[in-house]
Amino acid sequence: MAKDPRFNILFTPLKIGSKTIRNRFYQVPHCNGAGTNSPGMNMAHRGIKAEGGWGAVNTEQCSIHPECDDTLRITARIWDKGDMRNLKAMVDHVHSHGSLAGCELFYGGPHAPGLETRTISRGPSQYNSDFATVPGCPGFTYNHEADKDELNRLQQQYVDAALRARDTGFDLVNVYGAHAYGPMQWLNPYYNKRTDEYGGSFANRARFWIETLEKIRKAVKDDIALVTRCAVDTLYGGKGVEIGEDGLKFIELASPYLDLWDVNIGDITEWGEDAGPSRFYQIGHENDWIRHIKQATTKPVVGVGRYYDPEKMLQVVSSGIIDIIGAARPSIADPWLPRKIEEGRIDDIRTCIGCNVCISRWEMGGVPFICTQNATAGEEYRRGWHPEKFEPAKSTKDVLIVGAGPAGSECARVLMERGYVVHLVDARDKIGGYVNDVATLPGLGEWSFHRDYRQTQLEKLIKKNKQCQIALGQKRMTADEILDYGASRVIIATGSKWSTNGVNHRTHEPIPGADASLPHVLTPDQVFEGKKVGKRVMIINYDPYYMAPSLAERFARAGHDVTVATVCGLGAYMDYTLEGANMQRLIHELGIKVMGETACSKVEPGRVQLHNIWGDGYKREFKGTGQLPRRENTSHEWHECDTVILITSRRSEDSLYRELKARKAEWEKNGISDVFVIGDAEAPRIIADATFDGHRLGREIEDADPQHQKPFKREQRAWGTAYNPDENPELEWRL
Length: 735
Ligand code: SF4
Fold this sequence. Notes:
CATH topology of the largest domain: TIM Barrel
Strand order of the largest sheet: 3-4-6-9-10-11-12-13
Structural class: alpha/beta
Number of domains: 3
Distance between the termini: 43 Å
Largest sheet: 8 strands, parallel, barrel
Number of helices: 20
Bound molecules: iron/sulfur cluster
CATH class of the largest domain: Alpha Beta
Helix content: 25-40%
Number of strands: 30
Shape: globular
CATH superfamily of the largest domain: Aldolase class I
């Protein structure tokens, strides 16, 4: 299909200093877990975005000097020729698709903990980081207050890094002053308490940033386009940078030195105010701030706000709020988003659901990122997966998939894309499995985009191949029916259920009295089915993610008195998805009572017995067999309630798979060659990992052992061998 001409403005080239961006799609710097440690991953991930039409593709934050060492989080570095060589792989790949490559120069100050290099960062004043540089530990790392010599030295580090970026082949160099990094610490009075010519008045606080831009410009001339990423409002009110004060003044002051503005809001400690999760922030949520930028500059402006919808993109560019659509997450969920708009394939866009699971991997540190919507994100190099290209079917074996949740529907999609005949069967009347339930939780409506994308694609694929089928609202299949069905391959994707008796990770036993067949005890599954809930709700929580806070919110909003007794921090994992801070504020605002470090010992009608998890005595002593080597827990107390909701653990719904495995002898006579189990039915996991598992089996179904992962390329050092896995195929790994 042809592009809708209304979108022409999004495909109009624009001059950025001495460079020209071919359209208005700009992948803003974002981490992906590759850094310069995994150049193949970085190259392939960024390169596929250039192929998919992003006119400019940036690195993640790229450290300018060993003083800025962000280990254990993975970031890029441009310290030496080795880093330049690794980054060049990305630059060349991006250029090969006609896009500009950008490098974001990063200096962390106290927010870079120096765990690998054991260096100390410089900054305007000495303070300890308000960010959890070590996850869970804000306030752990300090910087050194720079004197005039050190300040000049730091500016020279920026200049040297910019020259290395230019020599690597980058087109854009971006001085990173958002998220409370680098020069923002000098502009922001929250960090800058100096009394010399670099502190105090706006002009003094802006001096470091302006001088740095001047020095870089002098060194690189017009060889590259100079960009700065600037948080125009740090959201601290008058104690920080505000758009109506220093924000716009700085845009005006710095514009002569720049070719492009890349603007956002917020800081690093609560950077979910920028990378807003859909639970709290919708598309374009920064517009109230960034709509003012053009008053203060004639230079082009890139802005962000999880722009996944072409209509909204059109609106902000046509109305002149911004010139270029900046995107991180929408470009991860769909690296081919611009190309799909250009080809008139709007309904093929794989829309970011705003779950921030991608970010959670960076936040926890040391691991590659993943995406809930795009199972190929981060897998482009090591597994050779392309988000839009599939190897044709290698056999005519047809496939029956039982369960159309995240794993089953994704597996069906991939297999149909490859040309296999697939029958997808589910008891629900919609595809999506438990995503249908999760999306009814407060704030999580956009998570249904995960289902919608697969539904649209499957409907299209079925039209192309009439032998494929989706049968929804079916009675649950038995093993006999599956054996009789006539499919060559069977994939069981029947998901998981919450424990009905309180089995949990602390005791690996049921909680006495916890029985969800009783009227006063519920599992989350029963909540979604509509089982009755009393006025006083007690949530017994052993789960670290969204279920307990979400159900607490749902019942508090409906007028119930809600208490959560929680073993771990309530929604602890949501700190990694940047939902944590606002979730805690919301819990507080709704008057939900939270009892931390609290486990459940017993459930009875009308009450539960709770205990503090540390109430069993610190002292260990030998008491002989059959006894705890500590004092018995003395903190047990009864609490009254009408309803108990058990959020303790999940169990795979795998009985069908186990029965089919036990009847392996009957497979051959029924024409079945393989039976596989995927997703939660194999082991409960987050939606992103279930989706990945379905995708993987779809790609690898003709492998020698498709139930288990194929080897993938590892980018690791191997003593005495070529480092590059492409030059040394022996560096493979099998699970
Ligand atoms: Fe969007 Fe979630 Fe994918 Fe991140 S993980 S890009 S937030 S869908």
